[in-house]
Amino acid sequence: SLKYAILLDEVEHEESWVISLEDLKKAGKEERKASKESMQEIAAKTKPEDLWSIIYTSGTSGDPKGVILSHFNIAANVQQTQAHAKFKKNKRWLSFLPLSHSFERITSLFSFWIGGDIYFAESITKVPDNLKEVKPQYMTTVPRLLEKIYSTVIEQVISGPKAKQKIFNWAQHVGTKAVNKYLVYNKKPIGPLGIKYAWAKKLVFSKISAVFGGEFVRCVSGGAPLAPEIGEFFLMAGVRVQEGYGLTEMSPITHANVNKHLKFGTVGKALPDVQTVIAADGEILIKGPNMMGGYYKSPAETAEAIDKDGWFHTGDIGFIDEDGYLKITDRKKNIIVTAGGKNIAPAAVEREICASKFIDQAVVVGDRRKYLVAILVPSLEIIAKWGKKQNPPIEFTTYEDIVTSKEVNQLIKDELRASQDELARYEQIKYFFIAPQPFTIETGELTASMKIKRNEIINKYDLEIEELYNN
Hints:
With 471 residues, the chain is α/β, with parallel strands linked by helices. The protein contains 16 helices and 21 strands.
């Protein structure tokens, strides 16, 4: 049971079990004076199988579960990660993910272990400022941050002079060739293409790399899928994005792209000593030294997650390609089976929808229904700029202005029509409604790592969803 809660800020309280960080430091100093053992002696008593931490899952597909991780699990994952990724020591890292999240916890330990300096961002909104201040070489991130930077750059280009648009389009064309022939293999472009790429970097891409502080080398992105075109875009600018995969139950990293061969749209190859198989129904099964001991006080759920042969059932659907790279299709629980018997991975449809600069977030619905519908969150920032260019101009100052606007509703319809060209007819959205507020961590619709809580959102808007089908 919970014994103490530590407050980082000085706040008045009466509970004896709540103590401040300063009081904890004082108690630690007193204990150190009174103790006859050194930290090294205490550490030497620790066994590999001893409990390191219980980390609770985000609860995107059910109730949060306490994951039991040992010192061996964590030590194994730190060493597996470095053997796979080969980060250099004495480099600066920027951290902005919640410190309670397994991905960020392993990043902190990992950066210490290889001899790096880690800086903690003041807040998610201050990350752009902190990047310029810290000038990091490495960072772990989630796609949401990269998507925001990408959409901001594209919007600035579209709203800029025609001459700048032509230069940008030329640079992107050159960059795409450089990416496919050289950069994904971590090679420097040579020959005529190398000369053109050098000019593209000077005229365009150097400005994008400056957003990351000017010394950035690469980052590992996880927690959600990253659109391939975004990964390619940042690679053109000299920012290598290694997309990876993991789960809290695996301490957490199991796969990551190899730096000498990036394959966008995949989560890369398995880390050393991690075994991966695809079950008959497409589910990804994993085992390795970094696998949890089980769920805290939940033997039935542990037995359901880890089978008799020791394989952890991830709940994700995917496949391994000819190069040994893992590609995630969707969560097993999220797969939509339409009334016509068609299987649809909603994440893939949502990625197509969110390729529109006007749409920030999307949740697709349609299990056991005749067609798909969607709950959408438009981008207030982008639509506000769009509104000013209309004749006559339309003012959008609040998100509520967007929700009630007939013009925005028509704009989204047009965007959906354009963005769904590549989808099969049964995968296309027939109707949608705009959520009355954006999905946020505070409203319980996003996890701490900014993953969408699909079930929470669908349950919250069940009446609106029914209305789309009834009408």
